[in-house]
Amino acid sequence: MGRTLLKRAGELAAVLLIVSFGTFMLVSLLPNDPAVVILGEGREPAEYAAVREDLGLDDPLPVRYVDWLGSAVTGDLGESVVPPYSDVLDRVAAALPVSVELAVLGLGMALVFSIPLAMWSAYRAGGRADRIISASAFGVLSVPSFLAGLLVIMVFANQLGWFPRAQWVRISDSLGDNLYHAFLPALVIALAETALFTRILRNDLITTLQEDFILAAKAKGMSARHILLSDALRPSSFSMVTLLGISLGRLIGSTVIVEYLFALPGMGSLVIGAANTGDFTMVQGAVLVIAVIYVLTNLLIDLSYGVLDPRIRRAHV
Amino acid sequence: MSELTQVSTPPAYGQAVDAAVSSPPGRRRRRSGSPWGAAALAVLGVAGIAVGVAALRGANGWLQLAVIVAGLGLAYAGVGRLLRRRFGAGFDLMSWLCAGWLVLLVLAALLAPVLPLGEHQDLASTLDAPVFARPDLFSEYPLGTNNFGLDLLSRVLHGARASLIVALGAVAIGLVVGAALGIVSGFFRKATDAVIGVLTNSLLAVPPLILLIALATVLDPSLRNLAFALALLALPSVVRIARASTMTFVQREFVLAARAMGASRMRVMTRELLPNVMLPLLSYAMVMISVLIVAEASLSFLGLGIQPPDPSWGNMIAEGEGDAFEQHPHIVLVPGLVLFLTVFSLNLLGEKARKRFDPRQAKL
């Protein structure tokens, strides 16, 4: 276990290095001179030169990268290049909790929906309920999230008026209000994830339910509820746990659409706003933070396998 | 959960497991019923569609939509039963419908410039056209118009051109580069494999949409740039599938035979491995196209992809954000439905292709 873990950590470090380099190189993809982007056109050449000097753009590439990475590691992600020139790290720190909360709530909802659905589906595989659930899951997966979001807003916020549309209450202000405002966005996130989880868990459950130990439990007279919840669920949950972790890492960055639709102040809105104004330092900082989170979540998933299946713990010692 | 506890007696449980083993889900034999019943269903459905389209022209739009959808459902059930009687229980009407939709869409998109369609882009020429006209198949604007009086049918088809060009281009680039990297990686293993693995993982470390937005920050949203950006999204999965397939094929006898006959490594990779690896890759391509179409639509929806007034499904749906959607739902529903049908068809056929040609992937 220790050795594999070390190897994995090495790989992840390499991944982070490459991602940071790619993020850093984003600026060089700019079709124009960054100084012109920052100041706008029609200034004195000396002013542009000063900005270039300030950004260190005259140094050779490796020097700039090491400088940039060095300050990034110490928590200095630079300043936004458009007014009000705010500190990137502050903005990211303010936006991150919103995205994390949305992702966690969305995934939690997806788990609550998908585990019973998958069990029902798998227990009577091929039956009417299974067919309906599987077909709906397939259909839901084909609805792009922005479309689903628009429809959900249309029905629950505009027509029925049960939930507010574009507002966000910080969790520190009022937990109840916060959850009330986060419900619809989380629901939109949960839709696609529920479909995904249900499909994966159903397939794994069907395989598990054919194992001998399930037959043994059956022979002992255990109830269906006991068999599904206590015996079958854990060995069937590997693919889903992997997926859950991947989803969490992915969602923290890709609640973009939902945040945009509901005008929530999360990472997605931050990145879109920055992209629209050409604020590349902001995009760089946000992408870097999102990538680090994704990589760390992946490391945690790897560790969780040992908890789920003791055989893995012994195999690598 | 109560449903589960009710059936907890051993025989029922055994049956459930047997059913799971013997019949793959979705392939269960259904009762066909009498052919007359099925025909009646089909006729009723078609009649419902006709009533919805023609008789309810002036009525409430939602009622009209509901009648048409119900008619379609009935017609589908009826025709499906009739065809299953004719061609056997394995006949899958849905797949044929999906294939038909894709063929129709591609043809219409190809022919869009020569078809007698309304104006899709030039705002100046539609100054006297009705704005927000409701969809009405018998009018000049079969699918309605948007807030500038542009014809939605025409816009949807021209949008399909953009979506398809970008997605197909991206998948083509992804397949060529990804297959090369994957085969090299799976063939040489060791350091090469490790380096390519780290590179693909790095691409995966940034969520797809964020990667696209980051690139859109610095690049112009031209079709070419979009295709290259989307190709980056397709790349990791192509590399992984190509690598995994290569690793299984490398151990097969035909590769050993080629080597024994003195084939160079280059020849083994291009003449022996590539044709075999291509099959699972191509069967995966369909799903990839659908993912990329959604990605492009999302980017355009956010205003970072194809820029209005050039039509794209994403920016058409974005037109309905806010009040327009509430008062004129067709602004969103028309492009949304086309997008959904396309993605659904690609997913369904792609899934079928994957099960058929790549048994290792069948489970996911």
Poorly predicted regions of chain B are: 1-29
- How many DSSP E strands of chain B? 0
CATH homology group of the domain at 95-277 in chain A:
MetI-like
H/E topology pattern of chain B: HHHHHHHHHHHHHH
What's the average pLDDT of chain A?
79
Cα-to-Cα separation, first versus last residue of chain B: 26 Å
Instruction: Report on the biggest sheet of chain B.
Output: none
| The CATH topology of the domain at 95-277 in chain A | MetI-like fold
Oligomer: heterodimer
How many extended strands of chain A?
0
How large, in whole angstroms, is the Cα Rg of chain A?
24 Å
Task: Quickly give the CATH architecture of the domain at 95-277 in chain A.
Answer: Orthogonal Bundle
Give the percentage of residues in beta strands of chain A. Answer: under 5%
Strand content of chain B: under 5%
Unreliable parts of chain A? none
List keywords for this structure.
heterodimer, A: 317 residues, mainly alpha, MetI-like fold, 15 helices, 0% strand, globular, B: 364 residues, 72% helix
What does this structure look like?
- The complex is a heterodimer of chains A (317) and B (364).
- Chain A is an all-alpha fold and 317 residues long.
- Chain A is 77% helix and 0% strand.
- Chain A has a domain at 95-277: MetI-like fold (Orthogonal Bundle).
- Chain A has helices spanning 2-25, 34-39, 45-55, 61-73, 88-123, 128-141, 145-159, 175-209, 212-219, 224-236, 238-254, 256-262, 267-277, 280-308, 310-315.
- Chain A is globular.
- The relative contact order of chain A is 0.14.
- The radius of gyration of chain B is 25 Å and the shape is flat.
- Mean pLDDT of chain B is 79; it is low at 1-29.
- Chains A and B meet through helix 1, helix 5, helix 6, helix 7 and helix 8 of A and helix 1, helix 2, helix 7, helix 8 and helix 11 of B.
Concise synopsis of the structure shown:
The complex is a heterodimer of chains A (317) and B (364). Chain A has 317 residues and is an all-alpha fold.
